[in-house]
Write a structure and sequence with these properties.
By secondary structure, this protein is of the alpha+beta class. It is built from three helices and six strands, in the order αααββββββ.
């Protein structure tokens, strides 16, 4: 009887141990499953974050390309503006006093007419000397301002330099189509015509 009781207790202990082991194994499996799910979730989270980062990098890269392009365009526009401004400034310096100088030219014409009128006078005549001196100073003034007389007499007629007043029969065969006489001298300033030569053409 005592032996039977001992066997029964033994079976109960063994059954309890099996149950405990099964419960432990179940808990362990549940914990591992939980860990696995957590790890999977972290992995997916990481992947999602990585995708977002890649998108941001791509967006920033595109923005940088746009900014570079805008910068290059702006630099080119500024360079063109600077060159244009410098050119305009140079033109202004070159032709700044053009109006004043053009208005002086008729005075020089008058001095030349006076010299022609005084041509028969003696060279030591004070009036002739005075006129010649003033005329020489005017000539020097024109030279300093890069103003040059246009050579016209017996030259080929050029519409860029000459203005035809009239035509007359050419005194010589070789003067046909050329300038026979100059009515009013023309002048250029820095290679720009500030007054056309008024001329007579031979035909």
């Amino acid at each position: 009887m005592a032996e039977e009781k001992t066997n029964k207790e033994k079976e109960q202990v063994e059954e309890t141990e099996v149950k405990e082991n099964t419960a432990q194994e179940n808990d362990k499996a549940a914990e591992e499953d939980k860990k696995s799910k957590k790890a999977k979730g972290k992995k997916e989270n990481k992947k999602s974050k990585k995708d977002n980062t890649d998108e941001k990098i791509e967006a920033l890269g595109n923005e940088l390309i746009d900014l570079k392009d805008k910068h290059i365009r702006l630099q080119a526009e500024f360079d063109n503006y600077r060159k244009r401004t410098m050119k305009e400034k140079m033109e202004l310096i070159k032709t700044g006093g053009e109006t004043v100088l053009v208005n002086i030219l008729p005075v020089i014409d008058d001095f030349e007419r006076a010299l022609i009128a005084f041509s028969e006078m003696k060279d030591d005549d004070p009036l002739k000397q005075g006129i010649t001196l003033i005329y020489s100073k005017f000539q020097e003034f024109l030279k300093q301002n890069n103003i040059q007389e246009i050579e016209a007499k017996e030259k080929e007629f050029d519409t860029d330099l000459h203005e035809a007043v009239t035509k007359i029969p050419a005194p010589k065969e070789e003067l046909k189509g050329k300038v026979v006489d100059v009515i009013q001298k023309g002048y250029v300033m820095n290679e720009k015509v500030i007054r056309f030569s008024k001329v007579v053409i031979g035909e």
